[in-house]
Structure formats: structure tokens, C-alpha cells
Design a protein that fits this description.
The protein is an alpha/beta fold. The protein has 24 helices and 18 strands. The chain folds into 4 domains: 206 residues, P-loop containing nucleotide triphosphate hydrolases (Rossmann fold, 3-Layer(aba) Sandwich), CATH 3.40.50; 89 residues, no CATH class; 181 residues, no CATH class; 197 residues, Rossmann fold, CATH 3.40.50.300. The strands form 3 sheets. Strands 3-4-2-5-10-1-11 form a 7-stranded parallel β-sheet, sandwiched between helices. Strands 14-15-13-16-17-12-18 form a 7-stranded parallel β-sheet, with helices on one face. The chain has a 4-stranded antiparallel β-sheet with strand order 6-9-8-7, sandwiched between helices. The chain starts with a helix and ends with a strand.
């Protein structure tokens, strides 16, 4: 219930921020504050059950807040006092680690200083961002790198060279001992090569948690301890979803005790898909099983004194060998599928199964492998439990250092075995009757002239995932972003996320004056369907469209066209262009700003990554040129499977998926122009389909209210 006292507290906090920061109150912020407050008022008060409430609607709101709304202030001054009043923790999840750092180091301190709200906050990161002291001790004791611990994915990460790694590890242990470093990778003063860092960190499957002898000095657990007292926890989407995938409460508080804010929330469905997909790279999994067998053979005698473990250890070599043999048989069956493919598909490196249906020849092999990996998982789980118990037993009969090493080994084996089990379980069924179906596909890999196969399986929509792990469990959820709707509707987000239609939905308009900018479609005698003619037309028109004394951003949907247009332009224009791929994104943006600050013009040629999240206010971008309506290339097996499913249900994938997706991307690309209330400029779309096609007019009407020049 939203009491008058709480309303006053929110109003006072907002007014204080506006006054002390000398800001102008914005109608959009007031709308957001009201929407969030009314949504969170649906959460039962401490001691009150949901059944006692007059309204049983979900405490979920989805807010599209246009660029410049100031949504961070709006959700902070509302959600922080309401979470405190409701006895909940506020988890703010950003889309990237960089935004997470900005929020915790800049935005939150600023809001706390000016709002007169009293709250604490902490930054949440996963285990992989922290050094593992047990691993570091072992690496230094070995002196040549840790040869006793089996890497979890040795096929994906190269082991570091001792000459490169050991000086870094010594520096780390010294800095920890002197209290000059907290074990957080992001706070280490120098860049650490990826393979060196991976050798000194761990994940959930290999961590022995409270049983670890270094627990009192553990950087991860020290950081996690801070979370238990913080009113606001700043995470990112990946960490939040990882926690939910582990059942909730593994890193963050239990979902039932959390109010989540997903900033840049339009990314949430895609992020969720990646966390619940599974894969198995056959040839490297065989090698990993064989390496595991060798490591176990070396250590069996060491673990022999442990009571109750000998029986399970004795079974492992045969289980590993049987699984490896079955994988080799499966590899032959997969190769046959490629050989038996239709003639026009035999040169393809990817084989996607229509409607997610597994070939009959693969189902029994997958069932066998699922059974074998299930037995392996069961056995490894029992061994891991025994090792954990022994770590707490002073009279276990095995050296503690050896126990730690074997816990890491067995934990790593268990983690990979569970991941592989999930894949084979997904292939051990026909796939018939799945609604929606899973996407299943196999990729032919070529490494150093040797072929291999990777099997993958993924949901095609995140709806079921989020309906299981997030929506019904969280105390409350706020989704906000500048781009959530497509074609002025939330339908696309509802389809992909599974959010209840009883949630609150709100579009908050941007405070920007879009009449200060022009949206233009120039006259052209071709459409992007004729790729060669379209590129030629761009080469001809760009020198006249662009002002060499201004800063411009030209966005392409394909690298091929970007290169063609670049090569076709006169030499004097090519000198003005900074092209994606010629340097890192950050370096290109730095050079661009440097040129503009020096009084020169500058042109960036970029792809999709420059169409979202790039902030070039004022003089840094006066003209955005978009080559064509950004329809996705249907090369993703997940997108292809989704389109196939919609068509099978009698729908139109182009109108239901492709057009809304393209509309949202076009809004994002157009949004690169106006970044402050004073900005002016022009957006030029070199695609006449937005005028000539029926769907084009729908896309056009979903754009911000620019002045239009349609030729």
C-alpha cells in the first residue's frame, strides 16, 4: 500500500535532487515515478499475505522512457524508499559491466548525496571477476603453473605459459598480502591476459564455498558479504540471470526478497536465451573425457583413504571411457547427416533441424549418451559431496592441499558433465509437441584442417524461461529502456519475454524537441533488394549528402556493403572516414571526437554495434545516414526456428517478427542523432521502401516525430 508518508518521502527525494542539481523537473520523470510507485504498491507489506490484498496483479511494470527522460533518477528515488519500506532489497541490473560501474561509482553516489535518502549500496560481480586464493596458492606452490588441476574447458582456453603467468601471480599474492588489492580483476592496475586470469579464478562448480580453508580471506565471499547488508545491489543482466539459473540466492538474495530493475531491459529476453542454451563440441569433449581419466588414474591412490569414496572412484574410468566411445559413434552419425544432406546443402557448415525435430538416427545415440552422462553426474556428485565433507574433517587421512586440488578437479568435471548432459537430454527426444519448439542445430567446425562437430540447443523464446525463474518469484520487477516497443506496441516484448498482460505498461515520451531535426528519404531509382545498384547509388549520393565540415555517422546492415561503398568513394572522402574494423570501437570514437575537437569534420562508417549505445552529443554527430531499413539477416538458427514456428501456426513471420524487429532497430539507429535537448541535425534513410511499402509506412509512423522530407 502506498501510504501518504511514503508518497511524501518520494516527492521530497525527487524535489531535493532537482533543486540541488539545478535540474528542470521533467514530466516524463513524474510519469515514471507514479508508474513505479503504483506498481510496487502491489507488493504485500511485511507480514501481509498476497491473498489479503484487494489486487492480485503482478508487481511488474514495463516502461519505455524516451531518450533524455532521466530514468535513472526516476526509478532510484522511487524504488529505493519503497524497497526499504517493504523490507525488500533493490537489485538494479544494467546491460553491461561498464554501465554497472557507472551506476555504482557515479549515479548512485550522486543520488544519495542530493536526494537526502539514507541507503547503502554494493556492487555485485560473479566469481570469475575475483581471484581464487586457493588456486593462486597452488599455482605458486607448483612454480610452473598448476599441472595438477584439470581445466574445465581446455579446448576453449589455452593454458598460460609459466614465464608469463608466474610473475603476475607473485605480484597478485604480494598485493593481497599487503592489502593493496581486493582480488577484483577490475581493480588490478594492469591488464591481465585472459588465459593467465582464468588460471587464477574459479566458477560455481569448482568452488568449495564455506568449506574452503581460505574462506575468511576469499575476495568473492568478502564482496558477497557486503551484499547482505546493502539496500541496493548493482548487478548486470548476465549475473542476475546466472543467479536465477542457479535457482536464485546463489550470489544475490532470494528473488522473493528482491525488487529488480532491469535497465536497458529490451536486452533481457536475448540475454535469458543465452543462459539457457546448451552445447557439446564432440571431438574436444572426447579429449576432455580422456584427460579426465588420466588425471583420475594419477590421483586414485591419494584419495583411497577416504571412506565410502573408493567404490565411486573405481567406476569413473569405465564411465569416462564408455562416454568417450559413445561420442565417437555419435560423431560418425552426425557426419552421415551432413553427407546425406540435400545436394544444395552439402557445402553448408550448419545443419538446422526443421521445427527442432531430431533425426531418428540420432535419438537412440543421444539417449545412450544422456544415460551415460547422467550416471557420470550422479557419481561425480557423490564424490564431490564426500570431498566437501572431508575438507571439514580434521582426521580425513588425506592432505588438505590434495583435498582442495581434487575438489577443484571433481567440481570442474561435474560442471562440464552437467552441461553436456543437458545437451544430450535435449537430443534424446523427438521434439514433437514442443510449443514453442527448441532450436536444434549442428555446426561443422574446421580447426587446423581437422573437422569436428558442435551440437547446440536453445529455446527460441525466453517467455517460458522468465515465466519460470523471474516473473512469479520476484517481489517486483521494473523493466525500462528507451526502446522497448516496436510499431508503437509492447506486443513484441510480451511475446519474447512472457511478461503478464496484467503488468503495467507505459510509454513516456522523450522531452526532446524532434522538430529540431529532419528525417529524410532522398530520391533514388533503386531499392536495397538490388544490392549492386543500391551500393552504387550510395556511392554517388553520399558526397552530396554529407557535409565535410560536420561530424556524421553512416550505418550499414552488412560489412560487405560498407566496404563496397568505402572503396567506391573518391580518395579525398576515404581520408575523412573512420571505418569499423580498422580499430576498436573505443579507439574509433576517440579519434572521431579528437578530429571534431580540432575543428575538422569526421565520418564514421559502422555496423549494428554503432547503432545502439553510442553517445555522440552535439557537434560530435550532426547527421546520421542509415543505408537501409535494418532487417535482420535470417542466418541465426534461433531466429529461423522462430519464423518457422510462427508460420506453422498460420502466422506471418515477416510481419510478426521481421518488421517489428526492424522498426525497433531503426528507432535505435535514429536515436544516435539527438542526445541532448539542444541537439539538432538530420537522419537520412537511403531506403525508399519506408514510403513505397505498406509495412514501411507502419515503420515510419513508429519513429520519433522528426520533421519529414520524403522525396
Amino acid at each position: 500500500m502506498l501510504s501518504e508518508e511514503l508518497k511524501d518521502r518520494i516527492r521530497a527525494a525527487y524535489a531535493a535532487v532537482i533543486e540541488k542539481k539545478s535540474l528542470t523537473p521533467r514530466w516524463g520523470q513524474r510519469q515514471m515515478i507514479a508508474e513505479i510507485a503504483n506498481t510496487l504498491a502491489r507488493i504485500p507489506l511485511p507480514g501481509e499475505t498476497p491473498a489479503e490484498r484487494s489486487n492480485a496483479e503482478p508487481a511488474v511494470c514495463v516502461i519505455e522512457a524516451g531518450t533524455g527522460t532521466g530514468k535513472t533518477i526516476a526509478y532510484s528515488v522511487t524504488a529505493i524508499p519503497m524497497a526499504q519500506a517493504l523490507g525488500k532489497r533493490l537489485v538494479v541490473a544494467t546491460a553491461t559491466v561498464a554501465l554497472q560501474e557507472q551506476f555504482v561509482h557515479k549515479d548512485l553516489p550522486d543520488i544519495k548525496r542530493h536526494s537526502e535518502l539514507d541507503f547503502s549500496y554494493a556492487l555485485a560481480k560473479g566469481r570469475r571477476r575475483y581471484v581464487c586464493l586457493s588456486k593462486l596458492d597452488r599455482l605458486l606452490a607448483d612454480g610452473q603453473g598448476d599441472n595438477s588441476v584439470l581445466p574445465l574447458y581446455p579446448d576453449e582456453f589455452e593454458l598460460p605459459q609459466a614465464a608469463e603467468a608466474m610473475p603476475i601471480y607473485h605480484s597478485m599474492i604480494d598485493a593481497l598480502g599487503r592489502g593493496e588489492w581486493d582480488g577484483d580483476r577490475d581493480n588490478w592496475p594492469a591488464t591481465v591476459p585472459e588465459q593467465v586470469w582464468l588460471g587464477a579464478t574459479t566458477d560455481h562448480s569448482q568452488c568449495s564455498g564455506r568449506r574452503c580453508p581460505n574462506i575468511s580471506q576469499c575476495s568473492f565471499y568478502k564482496a558477497r558479504e557486503e551484499l547482505t547488508h546493502a539496500d541496493v545491489i548493482v548487478a548486470n543482466h548476465d549475473l542476475t540471470l546466472s543467479d536465477l539459473a542457479l535457482g536464485g540466492g546463489a550470489i544475490l538474495p532470494e528473488p522473493e526478497d528482491c525488487i529488480y530493475v532491469f535497465d536497458e531491459g529490451h536486452h533481457l529476453p536475448d540475454k535469458a536465451l543465452s543462459h539457457f542454451a546448451s552445447f557439446c563440441r564432440i571431438h574436444t569433449t572426447v579429449a576432455w573425457l580422456q584427460d579426465s581419466g588420466k588425471i583420475l588414474a594419477q590421483g586414485a591412490a591419494t584419495l583411497a583413504p577416504l571412506s565410502g569414496i573408493a567404490h565411486y572412484l573405481k567406476q569413473l574410468p569405465e564411465q569416462l571411457e564408455n562416454a568417450a566411445d559413445s561420442l565417437k559413434v555419435a560423431e560418425q552419425a552426425v557426419a552421415s547427416l551432413f553427407d546425406d544432406a540435400e545436394p544444395n546443402r552439402r557445402d553448408e557448415t550448419q545443419l538446422r533441424f526443421e521445427h527442432g525435430l531430431v533425426p531418428e538416427s540420432l535419438i537412440p545415440l543421444a539417449a545412450t549418451l544422456a544415460g551415460q552422462f547422467q550416471s557420470l553426474v550422479n557419481n561425480l556428485s557423490r564424490i564431490e559431496k564426500s570431498l566437501e565433507d572431508s575438507l571439514e574433517d580434521e582426521f580425513a587421512g588425506v592432505d588438505k592441499g590434495d583435498l582442495e586440488t581434487w575438489h577443484l578437479n571433481i567440481g570442474g568435471m561435474l560442471g562440464r558433465a552437467e552441461a553436456t548432459l543437458a545437451l544430450w537430454q535435449a537430443y534424446a527426444v523427438t521434439g514433437k509437441g514442443e510449443q514453442p519448439p527448441m532450436a536444434r542445430w549442428i555446426t561443422l567446425l574446421d580447426s587446423n584442417g581437422q573437422h569436428g562437430f558442435e551440437l547446440r540447443c536453445s529455446p527460441i523464446l525466453a517467455a517460458d524461461i522468465l515465466q519460470e525463474y523471474l516473473w512469479p518469484r520476484a517481489a517486483g520487477v521494473i523493466i525500462t529502456s528507451a526502446t522497448i516497443t516496436a510499431l508503437n506496441s509492447f506486443e513484441r516484448f510480451i511475446l519474447h519475454s512472457g511478461v503478464s498482460r496484467e503488468a503495467r505498461f507505459k510509454i513516456v515520451a522523450s522531452p526532446f524537441d524532434y522538430s529540431r531535426a529532419v528525417f529524410s528519404v532522398p530520391a533514388m531509382d533503386c531499392e536495397p533488394g538490388d544490392a549492386e545498384a543500391h551500393s552504387a547509388a550510395m556511392i554517388e549520393q553520399l558526397p552530396n549528402l554529407l557535409n565535410r565540415e560536420e561530424a556524421s555517422l553512416v550505418l550499414f546492415s552488412s560489412r560487405r556493403q560498407m566496404l563496397e561503398v568505402y572503396q567506391g568513394l573518391p580518395a579525398q572522402w576515404r581520408e575523412e572516414i573512420l571505418m569499423q574494423g580498422d580499430g576498436s570501437k573505443q579507439e574509433i570514437l576517440r579519434l572521431h571526437r579528437e578530429r571534431v575537437d580540432g575543428g575538422d569534420g569526421s565520418v564514421i562508417f559502422g555496423l549494428a554495434s554503432f547503432a545502439e549505445g553510442v553517445d555522440l552529443p552535439g557537434k560530435y554527430c550532426r547527421h546520421v545516414v542509415i543505408a537501409k531499413i535494418p532487417f535482420a539477416v535470417p542466418d541465426s538458427p534461433i531466429e529461423a526456428s522462430l519464423a518457422e514456428w510462427i508460420e506453422a501456426r498460420g502466422g506471418n513471420p515477416f510481419m510478426e517478427i521481421s518488421v517489428p524487429d526492424a522498426a525497433l532497430r531503426l528507432v535505435q539507429a535514429s536515436g544516435r542523432l539527438l542526445r541532448t535537448e539542444q541537439d539538432t541535425g538530420r537522419v537520412t534513410l537511403m531506403d525508399r521502401r519506408i514510403i513505397t511499402r505498406r509495412y514501411g509506412r507502419a515503420i515510419l509512423d513508429s519513429l520519433p516525430p522528426f520533421k519529414r522530407e520524403l522525396h
